[in-house]
Design brief:
Strand order of the largest sheet: 1-2-3-5-4
Number of strands: 19
Oligomer: single chain
């Protein structure tokens, strides 16, 4: 009674929602309106319940993320110190008004401003030059920071010490280079090499993913490939502590991979390495595609599931071992010691796997849960998720626009809501005889596994559809068949293998991993081969995605029947996404590929250069199941030495001009001309030329009664550090650098057919 009276006194004194709920209000009861209550009073009762004590904290990271989203939506780079000062003033105002009724609103506004300022300050902190024009045969020296093994080539990041390049070229800080498989230098070494460099890959169509933005926040200003040999030399200075740490962790990953390689091979070895070290680029394309088609792609990205298994195995193993000593069970807090050991294991796993965004989120959530165990607090709550989200967004604001962050937090929000809201509603008391019998035979656990797979799959569907243009209708089936084996066999065997490595007894555990991995591969290939396994979704804008996110948040966070409004918002977002009209013409950023929607409603491609990755992305964004090599892709296209031409759905012609001689006819007959040549000024057709493409990047066009409406990757006025506005002047394709060739001990130039799109 004293505690309840104290809570009432605190609520009466403040008159506002508190951020952290008192212990007694952890499970807030939803008021049940009486039959005499009017509709408005009922609605107001629900609103007051949602604004009650402890309901404010989960909305703070949402407001913080909204501020970050507004930052990335800006056309020009904000002034970081102005944004920071504004956020500081609003935070001070929220603190001073903490006992006023408007405190929640002021706090959320301050959180939005803080998110905006945090993103602006992060951009200012990592500011560096970005290559705008291709460079050929650039002599570089520097330290090797990271190394990736891929299916056909290897790739590494070089921190540039010296760069012999034309005077107008920017001085780059870090570059990412591809080499022939097996020729990548050792992490931490200082090397000399020559490379061809390209600007970071821009979005392939308006609204698609911005690879260049990702590279910018990684500090990488260009990508490309090595030309010739790589020569290791003595460094002019000692490597930094951070570089020595990276070399140590890379050496540990290489050692683990080498030990696994002695027992396993092929995709089994690649998947085992991916699960333990986060290096998943060596998995074959067929298995990788099948994993994502079947809905098991999340297994390859170290996230909450992997972190929970690692921490759980260590927690229960340590607790079981300590429980074998009777004296400790009485006098020693073995549960807290086990939680501390699990926290240490989770931290080691975070560092070993490379600390990607999804892994960071997983670690922070796991850490909060384990620390809650150590201080005897409730662990799996919305507060845990809110704290983890805030930590990740403060450390890496750019994570908000990354698919791994969006899918990871959406799935976790759904699962937490299932644990806190769904389970009490779905399962009766154990005193109920039917429920007790079902639970005795494992029915409850099976039901929870099905529900968890279903909820996580549904929560991530909007983001998978937006970023990858696909959904996984049979994902629940694949997860039910594969995940128990992964949880009970693959991951525990991997953890035991790591523990046994120093003693030389790890081989048996890699073989156990192989048994489970082979089963997972069989399941994923079987599910991927089922008719209708690939659910394709055409590209849609950010509007439906934002609407879907609001619906998921409302469904997950609200406790009263108001949460069902989230289902309505979700349905609206689905209808919105389905009604988005696809473009009639797509033009690549270099002007060498043009896709035109014909009378059959499908894209027909004219191209003067082979770009399989670009065409694959265009077809995926159009929900088109054809492969880039399908002959029907170029059906209806007429080409000769001077160029290509194909009709739109209304019969109007689109021309790709390769030689100036073609302008005479095409300017008279075509409605649209795409060319890298200089068009005549009196051309009657709409012309998309090289200068415009260099300024705007890839463009899409929609046919209208009066011509075309144009949407561009870089619309006029957009100028951000990772996507600089280009002045209205022609640019050369390449800048030549004629420095004499260096000594080439081993030719590391990758084969042209092995290069990935971002390397060229």
């Amino acid at each position: 009674m004293a505690r309840g009276g104290d809570q009432q006194q605190r609520r009466g004194r403040s008159g506002t929602a508190t951020t952290w709920p008192p212990p007694a209000t952890a499970g807030v009861a939803v008021p049940s309106p009486t039959s005499s209550t009017s509709g408005f009073e009922t609605l107001w009762t629900w609103v007051r319940a949602e604004a009650g004590p402890g309901r404010l904290l989960p909305w703070v990271p949402i407001a913080f993320g909204t501020g970050i989203a507004l930052y990335f939506a800006a056309e020009h780079e904000p002034v970081a110190w102005v944004a920071a000062a504004t956020a500081g003033l609003l935070c001070v105002a929220a603190f001073l008004l903490r006992r006023q009724r408007w405190f929640p609103l002021i706090l959320l506004i301050a959180a939005i401003a803080s998110g905006f300022a945090m993103a602006a300050m992060k951009t200012a902190r990592v500011a560096h030059e970005v290559l705008a024009k291709p460079l050929y045969s650039v002599a570089l020296t520097g330290f090797v920071e990271t190394h990736e093994e891929r299916e056909r080539t290897d790739r590494f990041v070089l921190r540039v010490a010296t760069m012999d390049s034309p005077r107008a070229a920017p001085k780059l800080t870090r570059v990412r280079l591809s080499v022939k498989k097996g020729t990548a230098p050792v992490v931490g070494s200082f090397v000399e090499l020559k490379a061809r460099l390209q600007p970071p890959l821009s979005p392939l169509r308006p609204g698609s993913y911005d690879f260049g933005r990702d590279l910018y926040f990684q500090g990488i200003g260009a990508s490309g490939f090595v030309m010739g040999g790589i020569k290791a030399v003595d460094p002019p200075i000692q490597p930094s502590v951070a570089l020595r740490y990276s070399a140590t962790m890379q050496g540990l990953r290489d050692a683990i991979d080498a030990r696994i390689r002695t027992v396993l091979s092929g995709d089994s070895r690649a998947i085992a390495t991916a699960l333990l070290t986060g290096r998943r680029d060596a998995i074959s394309a067929d298995v990788n595609d099948a994993m994502f088609i079947s809905g098991l792609g999340h297994v390859l990205s170290i996230s909450g599931y992997h972190m929970a298994v690692v921490a759980g195995v260590v927690f229960f193993a340590i607790r079981a071992l300590l429980a074998l000593i009777p004296v400790l069970t009485v006098t020693f807090p073995i549960k807290k010691v086990a939680a501390a050991a699990a926290l240490f294991a989770a931290l080691f796993y975070l560092l070993l796997s490379g600390a990607e965004v999804a892994t960071q989120r997983s670690f922070f959530m796991t850490a909060v849960v384990l620390m809650a165990v150590m201080v005897d607090r409730r662990a799996v709550t919305f507060r845990t998720l809110a704290v983890a989200a805030m930590v990740v967004l403060i450390v890496a604001p750019e994570a908000l626009v990354h698919p791994s962050f969006q899918m990871s937090f959406a799935a976790t929000l759904g699962l937490v809501a299932l644990v806190q809201i769904g389970m009490p509603a779905l399962f009766a008391s154990p005193d109920h005889s039917a429920t007790a019998r079902v639970a005795l035979w494992g029915g409850r656990e099976i039901a929870m596994l099905v529900l968890a797979s279903l909820v996580a799959g549904l929560a991530t569907t909007p983001y998978a559809a937006f970023h990858f243009h696909r959904v996984t209708p049979y994902g629940v089936v694949a997860n039910l068949l594969a995940m128990p084996v992964v949880s009970a066999l693959v991951m525990p065997a991997g953890i035991l293998g790591l523990a046994a490595m120093p003693f030389g007894f790890d081989g048996v555990f890699w073989r156990l991993m192989d048994v489970g991995i082979q089963w997972m591969i069989v399941v994923t290939q079987w599910v991927a081969a089922v008719p209708g396994a690939i659910g394709r979704m055409p590209a849609f804008g950010t509007g439906p995605l934002i609407s879907a996110s609001i619906g998921i948040i409302v469904l997950g966070l609200l406790r009263t029947p108001l949460r069902f409004a989230g289902a309505g918002v979700l349905m609206l977002s689905i209808v919105w996404a389905l009604l988005v009209k696809q473009p009639d013409v797509l033009i690549s950023g270099d002007g060498r590929s043009v896709a035109v929607r014909g009378r059959d409603g499908r894209l027909h491609v004219m191209r003067s250069a082979k770009d399989t990755f670009l065409l694959k992305e265009w077809l995926a964004g159009d929900a088109d199941a054809r492969l880039p090599t399908d002959a029907s892709v170029s059906h209806g296209v007429s080409c000769d030495r001077d160029g290509c031409i194909t009709p739109l759905a209304d019969g109007a012609l689109v021309a790709l001009v390769l030689q100036p001689d073609a302008f005479t006819d095409d300017c008279e007959k075509a409605a649209l001309i795409v060319t890298t040549k200089q068009p005549p000024r009196d051309c009657r057709a709409l012309v998309i030329d090289q200068d415009r493409l260099q300024r705007n990047g890839a463009v899409s066009l929609q046919r209208t009664a009066n011509g075309f409406t144009i949407d561009a990757v870089r619309p006029r006025g957009l100028d951000r550090p990772w996507s600089r506005a280009i002045p209205d002047e022609p640019q050369q394709d390449l800048i030549q650098n004629s420095r004499p060739p260096q000594n080439r001990p081993v030719d590391a130039t990758p084969a042209e057919t092995d290069l990935q799109p971002e390397d060229q």
